[in-house]
Design goal:
The protein has about 650 residues and is mainly beta. Helices cover about 10% and strands about 30% of the residues. The chain has nine helices and 45 strands. α1 packs across α2.
Length: about 650
Amino acid sequence: MKKLATAFLCLAITGAAGVGLRAGGRLESFDITGMRPSPAVGEILARVIGIQWDARSIPVRYVVNTTSGVVDTDGVLKVPNPLGPPVLTIADATVALQSSFNAWNNIPTSYIDMRIVGTRSTPGLVGFDMVNELSFNTSAGFTAIASSPSVNLIEDSTFVAGDDIDGDGDSDVSAAIKVMADADGDGDLEFPPGFYKAGTILDNDVQFNTKTTNGLRFTIGDLALDTVSRSVDLNTTATHEFGHSHGLSHSMDNQSSATDGDGATMFPFIDTDDPVAEALQRTLHTDDIAWSSYIYPEGTATSGPAALTGGDVAFRKLFGIITGQIRHGVLDQPLAGASVYAINQRGHRLTASGYSGTVDVSFNPSNGGLFFLPPEVGLINGRYAIPVPRGNYAVGVEAVDGTPAPASSISFTCMIGAFYGQQDFNEEFYSPFDDDDEARPGFSKNVHVSEGRPTDSINIVTNDAFNISNFGALDAIGFVDSPPERYYAVQVPASQISAFMPDERIVVHSALFETHVLDASTVPIFSEVMLTTGTINADGSAAINLDDPLDRDEMFVGQETDFSPFFVRQPRHLANKIRRGIARGEIQNLFLVLRIPTMAPYPGVSGQPPLIGLNATEPILGLSFISDGGSTFSKVTNANFRFSLVLAQLPTWW
C-alpha cells in the first residue's frame, strides 16, 4: 500500500497584514522510509522533509471546475461574488489563473511548469482524485481566502502499472506513458511506472473562498483594486497559492528594505485594505524566485524539464548557497525552525532566507497521528540553506515567535522548535567567533557568495540575553491620527537594571521596539530613536533627557509587526556608564524613546503614521508615556507599550 499524507496551508484574511525582513522555505511533510522504530511503542520515526513534484509530473496539468461558477442574468458563467452581482467571468478568471501560473513558469532558473489544460464539471469540493483542480467551491467551515492542499507520498515507493493510488477502483499508473498524463482518457491523471521519493506530490487542488458568509469578491486588474476588506485581487491570491502548489512554504517577508514595503508573494497575509500592497504582491520577490529555483533547478539534467532550452538559465550560473548551522545558545541544542535571512550589502535589500533544522517526529501507523519527540531524539541538526545570487551579504537569524508570524503558519519544523521552547531568542547577525556571549549582536561579518558553489559554515549561536519587558501580550496597535513629532517612551526603573547580575560586568545589547503600519505597502520609519535617562515628576509625568541621550539615531527603520532592534554602538562602555550613574544616584530611570516623523500626510492609502505595539489588558504598569513635542511626557493609563531593553553578561574573553 502506498503511504500518503496531506500538506495543507491557508492564506488567511487580514485587514492589515505585516512583517519585518524575513522569508522563504519549503512546504513540509514526513518520510517513514526504513520503518525506523520510535521510542514510543508501536510507532515509527518520521523524518520531516520538503515536498515537490517529480520531474515526470511536469508539466503539471490543472483543470478549472466550472460547476463552481454561477450563471449571471446575462447568461454568462461567472465567479460567485458574496458582496453583490458577479463581476468576473469564469473565462476571464481562467486567463488570470494561467497568468499567475506563468509568473512561476517564466522564472528562467526554475523548471517548474504548471498549466491549465481544460475544465471539469463536478459538484462538491476538491479532493484526492488524481485531478489537479481549481475551484471556487469551499466547505461551510472554510474561513481563509484560499488554500492549496496537496497529497504526497510519505514513503519511497515503486509504482507498477495497474496500481490504484487513490483507491477509486481505477488504475493510476500506466505503462503506456513516460510523463504524467490522462493515459486512459477518463479525466484523471496517471503516473508512469517507476521509483518515486517520499515527498512526491500526487495531487494538488486550489480552492478560492466565495461563500456569502465569509468569502471574498475576486477581481482582476489595477482598476478593480479597492480598499474593501472582502475584495481581493485574484492574481495576487492565485500566485501565492500556486507557490504552495509546487512546494513553497509561507515566507516571513513583506518588507524588502528601508524604502520598499513590498515583500514576498509567499508572505501568509494579504492586506486587502491596501490596493498598492495587493498589486505589488502579484510580482515575485527574489525570495520566491530563489526558492522555486532551488527546488526545481534549471540545467541539472540533459533531458526532460530540467534540461536547458531557449530562455533558460542554469541555476548554478546565477545562484550560490549560504549554508551553516543555528544553535540555541541557552538550551545548547540544534535550533529547529529559526528564520535565517540574507540581506544584500549593496542596497541593503532582503534577498532570501530559509528555516533551520532537521527533525524527526513519531508516527503512529494505526491512526496516522504525528507526535513530537523529546529534543534529544527529535533534533537531528540545526542546518539551513539559503539560495542567493552572487554577491555580498549580511546573514541574520530571528525567532519564528508570533511576531511577525506564528510557527503554525510556517512549517512542522518551526512548530517543533516552538514546542521545544526554542523560539525565544533575540534577532542577531552572523559575526566572527559567533557564540552565545557576544557583546555586539548587531555587528555582521560580510559573507561573500559565488555562483555555483556553497558558502558553508556560516554558523550562528543565539545569544544568552535578558530582556526587560514591562508588558504583556500584543492585543492592540496604536496610535492612529497621531500628530507629527509625537514621542513614545517607556520607563525602565534603575532597580530593574541593578537587579540583573549585580555582581557581574554586563553589556547593553539593544532596545527593541514593536513597530507596525496600517498599510502593508509602507515602511515604519521613525525620525528618531534613543536610549536616554529621565525622572518621574510628582504629578506622574516624566522629565526625559532628549538633549543628551546615552545613544540615539535618526531615521530609525522599523520592522512591520515585529520587534525592531536598535543595536547600541558601545555595549560595554554604555553598560559601565549606566551602572556608575545608578550607583551615584545620577540615573533613576532609563527611557526607550521613539519619535514619529515630521510629515503629513503620511505615505499609504490610509495616510497614517507608523504605529507601535500595545498591551492594553491589565495590569497596566504605568511605565509608558506620550509627548506631543517633547516638553511634557504624560503617563499612559490604558496600555503598556511593547518596548524592551536587552542586557547580557560581558563576554569572558573581553
